[in-house]
Prior knowledge:
alpha+beta
Amino acid sequence: MSKNLTTRSEDYSKWYNELVVKADLAENSGVRGCMVIKPYGYAIWEKMQAELDRMFKETGHQNAYFPLFVPKSMFEAEEKNAEGFAKECAIVTHYRLKNDPDKPGKLMVDPNAKLEEELIVRPTSEAIIWSTYKGWVQSYRDLPLLINQWANVVRWEMRTRLFLRTAEFLWQEGHTAHATKKEAIDESEKMMHVYAEFAENFMAIPVIKGIKTETERFAGAEETYCIEALMQDGKALQAGTSHFLGQNFAKAFDVKFANQEGKQDYVWGTSWGVSTRLMGALVMTHSDDNGLVLPPNLAPIQIVIVPIYKNEEEFTAVSEAAQELVSEFKKLKIAIKFDDRTTQKPGFKFAEWELKGVPVRIAIGPKDLENGTFEVARRDTLSKEVVLKDGIVEHVSHLLTQIQADLFGKALDYRNEHITEVNTFEEFKEVLESKGGFIAAHWDGSAATEEKIKDLTKATIRCIPLDRIEIAGSCVFTGNPSKGRVFFAKAY
Length: 492
């Protein structure tokens, strides 16, 4: 199997695009900016979904589903949110087509089928959900309301890239209502920590927890908490956000409740989400010039067995040994595949599973059966070892745990090596171009300075780190007083 991948050093963007397609994760569709997620890619997303869904339910959330379409007047109710998403909205204006009298075999919009009110195809669901919550909340006894939905959304992006930025994408969005401000803030912070735990323990991606500046904040939120990851090319990627909405949406949709004193008050809200953009993060954090490198905790196939044989008799003997291994690993809930295809040679299979990032490969041939050993190969390091048959199950089980930890460690080392403190704007620009990564610099807190730096360098403030120690300094651009350093980076 020929991979023919562009190398990362040659063209990182091209490498990424080729890998997503060649590894059978996704491909572009007949609709501009929309993607087809192929079975192997969707299997990874399903594993992400399963773990996140478990974590959401463990923190008391329930799943529901809300409509794809939002009446325009409803969408406009919370002004900041509507303004923030206005340029990305797809709009439904008619509900029927008819035959075009001037073009046989073609259809046209029926001018008599215009909707009384235009419908927005949801770019996010706050409007439709908060309009629904108005009927669900009357008393403090109805709170907190902890709802999540798994859905698709549409944001009419002009420049698209598979998984990272598409016109339609899959995500989850949590929407909660609370009796007090403190409860809502606690919820927002809790979900940011849930996302960070998922990214680090399952995706093996270290993240920085922080809050967004007012300029970068979610439209309609009073505070946006985020987790920021760093890709191999030195660019940052926002991996998840959690928003404290204050009472903004409650007031826009008149969601009130009778508190314990019997007085009417507006509820306090949050919303939070991660999307199939995480698939892009997974690819870019760990993969190499040979293809995908998947952390075992999210790999659809954690182990693949490839038989080596010359004739039917050898194939039968090797297959028996392989099936025994499959049975043993399945008892441990480890996802294993025996690649018994007779249409492809072992070399082709080795290349294919390497491209697809399967963490461990076991090769079994007649000599292995004679010696009572197996050849075990790690995808992350491309190293091989010979392991005794008697200890193979325990050895490989531990190896999967080791690979998961090693991938996180490698990504953490890279991230930490690419956090650079700078004190002058010249240093800022030099580090940004030559090294990349996160730049820790003083900022005077003004949106004007933030915008000017962005215009000059294309770097944005990714976050104000939660663990920041506030030490006074001078803004890297204006020289004005600063409370502490923030993290700048070029980003996806």
